[in-house]
């Protein structure tokens, strides 16, 4: 693990986003880095497509959520 130096304004935005997403600042930064890398590697896919694919790969089943909330 290393230290990443980022601009103060980006850190402030990261802190705000982490509060909304209920993640630590480090977890939010890791999420943005991972999704950014996946977006660069898959430029024809949308953000939603990439996140959906990652959720399915992790075993998340949206059908279960729909059944529970009904």
Automatic annotation (TrEMBL):
<dbReference type="Pfam" id="PF11903">
    <property type="entry name" value="ParD_like"/>
</dbReference>
<dbReference type="InterPro" id="IPR021831">
    <property type="entry name" value="ParD-like"/>
</dbReference>
<protein>
    <recommendedName>
        <fullName>ParD-like family protein</fullName>
    </recommendedName>
</protein>
